[in-house]
């Protein structure tokens, strides 16, 4: 494997280790010890520094001393990554696959295995998110109405909008 491919593989595996690993005892704010990743998961400090600095979606962050690392969003494990509650723009987008639409129009957008439903600021980003699951489809979300109904939104430090659930009544035809 080339060095570059190995780093991509390690960056992807880090998403699992920081968002979904039920074997590890995370602290309440979702931090994992850098030492654990070096000792037990084959990372070097230089690789972790490289991944955090250059990750395409800026998914990860260090604490100030670089002794701990966490994912900024996307967790299935139950941690509080101190998300910033933020007033959303009037419309956000959710990228999904066409085969999920009947169920989404029936039950709304569920967070499924993750802690939150993920919403994108642009149709372009939402299309990319949806295409991970099949033929992409972009739903518009009436965030203005959700916010005025008292529903909370959070903005992760890498620009992903999060909310707990989107009721079908807030889905827009775009
Ligand atoms: C769908 C990536 C049927 C939902 C992305 C989605 C994102 C339903 C799938 C982040 C449903 C869950 C999250 C319902 C929701 N019936 N299907 N009622 N409600 N769904 O991967 O939003 O690269 O957990 O539409 O860029 O695709 O990993 O969520 O298709 O930001 O950093 O259930 O993951 O970021 O899939 O992606 P996911 P997502 P990273």
Small molecules in complex = ligand HQG
Order of helices and strands: HEHHEEEEHEHEHEEE
Number of distinct beta strands: 10
How much of the polypeptide forms β-strand, as a percent range? 15-25%
So, CATH architecture of the largest domain? Alpha-Beta Barrel
What is the terminal separation in angstroms? 44 Å
Radius of gyration, in angstroms, nearest whole number: 17 Å
CATH class of the largest domain: Alpha Beta
Tally the helices. Answer: 6
Broad shape: globular
The proportion of residues forming helix, as a percent range, comes to 25-40%
Average pLDDT taken over every residue:
97
Protein name: Probable RNA 2'-phosphotransferase
Function: Removes the 2'-phosphate from RNA via an intermediate in which the phosphate is ADP-ribosylated by NAD followed by a presumed transesterification to release the RNA and generate ADP-ribose 1''-2''-cyclic phosphate (APPR>P). May function as an ADP-ribosylase.
Keywords: NAD, Transferase
GO biological process, one term: tRNA splicing, via endonucleolytic cleavage and ligation
